[in-house]
Fold these 2 entries.
Entry 1:
Amino acid sequence: MTDWLQISSNAVIVAFFLYCFSFIAYAVAVGGSRFSNREPEVHRKRWGNIGLWLAAAGWAAHLVYFFARWAGAGHIPVSNLYEFLMALGIAMMLAFFVIRFAYRHPLLGAFALPLTIIIVAYASVFPSEVQPLVPALNSIWLRLHVTTAVLGEAFFAVGFTAALILILRVTDFSRTDKAGRRARFWAEFTLVVIVIVIGFLVAVFGFRAAGYHAEFRQETVTVDARGNVIEQESTVEYGLPPIFKPYNSETVSMDPFLGMTEPLFETPSWMNGVNAGRKWNTVVWSVIVGLLLYGLLRLIIRKPLARAIQPALDGIDPDDLDEISYRAIAIGFPLFTLGALVFAMIWAQIAWSRFWGWDPKEVWALITWLFYSAYLHLRLSRGWHGIRSAWLAVIGFLIVMFTLIGVNLLIAGLHSYAGVS
Amino acid sequence: MALIQNTKCECGHQNPVGTVLCEACGKPLDEELAASDSVLEMRYDGMARRSQKPHPNLIDRIWNFFSSVRVAVWLILITLVAAALGTIFPQESAFVNLTDPAAYYRENYGTAGAIYHALGLSRTFESWWFITLLVMIGASLVICSLDRVLPLYRALTRQQVRKHPQFITRQQVVYVGPVPGDAEEWTARFAEILRRKRYKVRTEGTALLAEKNRFSRWGPYVIHIGLIVFLLAVLMRGVIPGWYMDEYVGLDDGEIEQIPRTNYFVKSLGFRIDFYSDEELPEHLKGQLRVKQFTTKAVLYECVAYCDDATRDPELREVASHDIRVNSPLSYKGLRLYQYDFAETPRLISVRPTLIDKRTGRSYGPFELPMRDPPLTYSVGPFTLELKDSFPEFGLDENGEPVTLSREPNAPAFVFVIKGPGLPEEGVPYLYFPREADRQRFGQDRINGAAAEMFDIRVMSMEDVEFSTYTSYLNVRVDRGMPYVWTGAAITMIGLVMGIYWNHRRIWLRIDDGVLSLGAHTNKNRFGLRAEVAAALAKAGIEVDAKALDNRRKET
């Protein structure tokens, strides 16, 4: 059992590096075509194929992770956020392969791979220990519900990547009117958000590697359903230097950081989710590190990121991207409906005695479904193709990510077992 | 002032008002549209819809409102936002007993919570406005579908092979060019190529119509039917009496209880918690208690006689038994019993006490004394014990009289009359507390007085005590709408697969004076259609790049 788990965790590392190499190959395919001696078309094909083979090898390792962990844990590894995000990464690669081969588009990987890499890295933020299944999860429907839903979401993710390329491809940097400036702003803003997500990963793993630790004792006062006042004292641990300490808390211990020996601010009282202080502090750090990274990138390339990427996308046909994005979402929609709603309802009926209970996770799955059905209906109308539809695909993916992660971290509910600390 | 539209096409066909493309030959009827060369909008093949009727009356206006896809999208988005608002704070329905919701939201979530509650958002999903939104979506589903499916059906079942050149050359996928060799021969050859690609092909001289996967066009309507069935089923279960029941039963081991509002009784043969063994746990959790499963061994009985007769015990017949676990309910004729919760409540089930005659020092028994429904007489050695009274939870009222505080055996007490050799005719009363703690607390010997000098009743060892550690709570449900809910969901899924994983493809062509005009249309996946047409043309001797067939590219 332990051997299997060891194989599994080694396989993740192999997969992660192969994905990174694959991304580098794709980046060479996209960015290097103008510097290569070969014909651009030949250059793209060659490096695109190298990227594809590396991605396939990475995916094979990722599958080894999945099945070895299954063998080691004795149940399908989709029962906490770490395992779930890993499964999402695997599904995203599968969706990417399907779309890649349906459309023979050589450069989709240049954007799908970084997304997968971010997801895999993000998964590693959460504790990766194997947990025994709680009774409610001990069901065949766990497999059906999660794998089908995650596959649908993976296709939405691929739809999002195609939409993002489309946005970067068609943003017009020569326009100076208001609409043109707005389009440029939002394209750049999307990239800034992605850099902030990377900033989050850098901050978390950087301080984790440095072994940073701070601890607080927090007093919370709540009132229960019968009107009794409950005072609780709890210990909150930080892995990042506390710019914001928890609301109403005392410092127990704190490693100094750059001469900072006391927390700078206190988290406002109205943020009262579970561990709101730590989450808020992490958000602040992510933004700081993300913006520093972004500033550094701007210093190096001396122009907006979107503008720097655009010339590399010259050879890609925007209509094809529109079609790919739409088709990926259309393929994902029935899978999502089946996995995230129908199988979920069947399981809820068996485990919780009702097929629908307006639990936050259920509601957000419904919101995702409503949003994509609105998207599919809008595609029927004139004027909702191309850039507008691409923005919808981006918003849709944000809703998917909120449903998957945000709900667990921000809102308590029946699915909270899937969250962590 | 209504504009009189000339709806008669040059081909001679008389079209209804609102028609965009002639029902027969496909020529654009609108003059402005006919003069341009943009790609044609092929929705419902340009047929007139009921919602485009001139001079709408009130009903027409309601119809028109709900038949609009724009309105449908707005309804979806409003519902989406409403649902999102409903998840900001927990809904009231998430609490079992919330006595003062307003105070709860104010105290836990501050001003935002108070506003949230005052706006009714803490009951979003039961609110009239949310349900109205769902009903409006239902109306939109029905009316949108009817408004479109009928014209589409008519258009697709009456297709003419020879179409107007404008109709053909303004499709999404277009090829115009010379035909090698004899026109009729080429058309026949091309027809054969398309048949091999599973197209249904009709020809009229040098005109051709090829079509496949028409059924996929019905996908969206099948989805909408499924959703309507689903919504109606959900609505019905709230409305029809007896369709829906949600009750809870708490059972100690060995206890039998009637399920409220039914003729059924359920008995627990024992509740058990299983923990993961160390071998099953990963390294870092070894030695910890991790729950693996909760199980209630349950037997379901149906009452067959004396069900409402207070003077007699009901006559029960066993109908089902099952180990109820999380994820594995007991199911019998639409009645489902779920493992819902448990509580640690150590309670006696029965004791086997011994009667000690202090005068002789001899002891008799033991005898079986169940806590629930104890028998009325017991013979123990030479003595007879008659049960005069029993108190499941013994207590004293304000007058100092003994009463029972509940029906649960939390502090059981029994009043016996002991009769036998050397005792008065009417017997000796004796109060017995099986639990040692109660015996001390209430002072059994003091109450019994002289009788305590003569007799003692007590349990000699733990083997003579049977007790239940847990109370298991079962959730009993009846939900007769479920088959319809699942049917609706299944129909929706079939529709989704039909409509999304297949696509309807049509190819029209005509050859005029050796020049081929070919147009093709699909409702989804232009890419695939383009590649298919290019491959078919290549087989028929016309080499053309798939991308060059895309009509929109020619615009720019």
Entry 2:
Amino acid sequence: MTSDLFRFAAPQAFFPLAGKLIPWFSVLAGVLALAGLYVAFFVAPTDHQQGEAYRIIFIHVPAAWMSMFLYVVMACWAGLGLALNTRLSGMMASAIAPTGAMFTFVALWSGALWGRPTWGAYWVWDARLTSELVLLFLYLGFIALKGAIPDPARADRAGAILALVGVVNVPIIYFSVQWWNTLHQGASVSLTRAPSMAAAMLAGMLLMALAAWMYSMATAFCRVRSIILERERDAEWVRMTKEQMQAAA
Amino acid sequence: MTWGSLGDFLAMGGYGFYVWGSYGVTVLCIVLEILSLKTTRGRSKA
């Protein structure tokens, strides 16, 4: 079992596996997003305080969760690559970064559009908002740093150090609402308490979060396949694979 | 059902700009990411 798992640490073995998984994750993402949007707009009731503006939650919270979760996953891959010198790890970290940056931007953007009607401002230098903005810069810095170093092995090591140092920001984002007096509200969903919202709102949010998760897997696997083909282009199996792909297209 | 008409749905109780601004930009980001993945994949095949 373990040897089977480790077999997929080789780019050559992972490439076809990722290719087989992408359609499944894509379909799941689509179905979950449609179900989530249906609940978000047609099942979840109007909020008695915020009216319809609260419906931004179904975008905002899943995006914010994914932005932090993907950063941790990216840092884990990067750290694994640094420790074990496995080729696939650095490629996975690179593959996750753009999707993570996208979700961070969406969380900030939807947060700004939610802040205006509820707080009266698109942006405030609040601990939660500022640390989430730092997260966006960490993603962009990671992408820029790796892009600036031509040697992939060196780029992976440098990127890994940046990713690992930056991981300290994730608990800061998460706990910022407890540690500081923030305008941003506290967690509505936690593992220890009953959620402070209607069941339909929670269901919609969880469906959207699962959709975002499936979407991230699909895009990361799709991107890692391009990275594998690019980096291993001198390998015999890549030449053969490319010929097969061209024949199929 | 919360919405009486399509106009109601689009108005989002007066918060249409904020709600649709959030959803719209999210969809745009997803579409752009998928398009960029498609072009990279096309390039690496050739």
